[in-house]
Predict the 3D structure of the following.
Amino acid sequence: MIEYILRGLLNGAVYALLALPMSLLFSTAGTIDFAVGGYALLAAAVASTVSGPLGLAAGLAAGVAASAIMALVFALLKRAGEAGIRIALASFGLSVALSSFVLLVWGTQPFVRSTYSTFLEVFGLRVSPQGLINLVIALVLVGGVQLLLLRTGLGRMLRAAAASPLAAELAGIAVLPLQCATVLAGGLLSGVAGLLIVYSSGLDFTASLSLTFIGFAAAIVFGIKSPIRSLLGGFAIGIIEALSAGYTSGLVTAMVPAVCILVFLIAAQLLAPNYTGDRP
Amino acid sequence: MIRRLPRNSLVMAVIALVICSLAPLKASWLDFAVMAGIFSLISLSAGLSYGQAGILSMAQGAFAAVGAYVTAFFGTRLGWPTLPVLALALILPALLAYCVARGVTRMAPLATALASLALANLVEIIAKSWDSVTGGYIGIAGIAPVPGFARPALFNILVWSFVVIAIIVYESVMQSAHGRALNVVRHDRTRAIADGVAVAPLLSSMLALSAAMAGAAGWLYVHYVTYISPQSLDTGVSISALLMAVVGGASYILGPVLGTVLLSLLVKFLPAAEAQGLFYGGALVIILVVARNGILGGLERFRPRSDKERAPHVPHVPAEARATSSAPSQHEEPKREAVPLSSEPGAP
């Protein structure tokens, strides 16, 4: 039982990295990016082709490059005055294109690389060292983003843009470049997540949408508004998944992210006020 | 309001007549026409939900799959007669769509998109693992053709008459009070609420109607291909349906049909099957950026202005024109304030 929870925590750390871009982009730009899993997939594919530490950098660069496409599309659509839903549709298209690209170039091979064959014994529990590395990296990145948001000028600008884009624009903040930078940061973060997945459980070309999915589920568990909540959400999804993998069939495990999303949406709706307007 | 001539339905009927009389000349044309008709239905359903109701539904393929599995299970496994199965293939996806839409999201746009994707994912997982009903990964084979329509030429006529019926239903819904309410919702949801439109039930029933259309497409699909598996109607189908609707012009009634026929022709020239996703996804992104109202929207620009409502980005033109000619009315004040602040430079 405790072992499952621990394993869930370690997996959940990676999910938190996928949830973080969703949370950031939703708060600053009011849209969702379906291509986050695609960035992670592309980063993983590139990193597993190029060997050594150079591969990691190449993977991250690929993830950021893919998100740069999204940032460009985002800027063009925003400039044309489009609503969030059309941007979401475009990101969905990009996601499909990315996973098809990976299929075309790398084929159906799984991307996996294991660094440690031994397990650490901590208090009588078997823990993979890679899991601990994942946890540490996730904690550092989430903490870093949180500090950035709360302590720096950039963070203050981001929070202003999140609170009210119009007012932020009036106060002289360049909102559109900030939002594009958020998309790029999303590419970087999910690229890191993709690399960590390569070194722990592995993935193949079909993973793109399911990764996006897990990210969403983790982002909305405890509300989408802050990095710490994304981290906790990631842990929660990881633990639910590990427990259902341990105690139920594979069918239930596969359904976890989708069911979680539906359940959390229902819960959020029960808590939401009855009438909401589009205009403030 | 005077009822307008059902222009789109008449045009569609003529197109369907032409297709049905030309297609039987060659076997490959016939196959193409049947598949294009079936996909037209799916992309029409995507056009109704996305273009008119503004619901980004990524579950249209899944709704079609539900219709197809219902047909395969009740029609082939249990041996039910054709018409009750067709009714079930229409009702079950509609019910599913309505329940998810009403129960889960209260139709906030992004939440609905997410919920529909979750639903599509669930449908796919269930199709893969519920062996006793769906046949698991292998699927269900050996579905008999529709009795009386076994010949491909006749079946083609059946498919395109379904498309025509769908267009007639679509157009009459859009001309009814519901359709006008839908137009208000699309332009300004708050205004619609203030006008007393029950937004969430209206949008949910539109999604249900579009799911029924997709279910009918699934029924036709499985009778034509005689085989259904989890890969037949998956998320790829949903995205290509959306793409076809957006290419043709999602907010125009005939747009999805046009987009489907054009893209089905184009896909024939693709080099590899693996590149299909790259093509669809890339084309979707490019179309959204370059021609946001699709082909019919592009054509509309060259036409003299009609009484049709114009695209949603135009409405502040009349407001400004009125402001220059006469004293501005009270409730236009905030809108005029908002125009120079927004980041679009092209405000005339």
Summary: The radius of gyration of chain B is 21 Å. Residues 7-234 of chain B form one domain. Chain B touches chain A through 53 residues (CB under 8 Å).
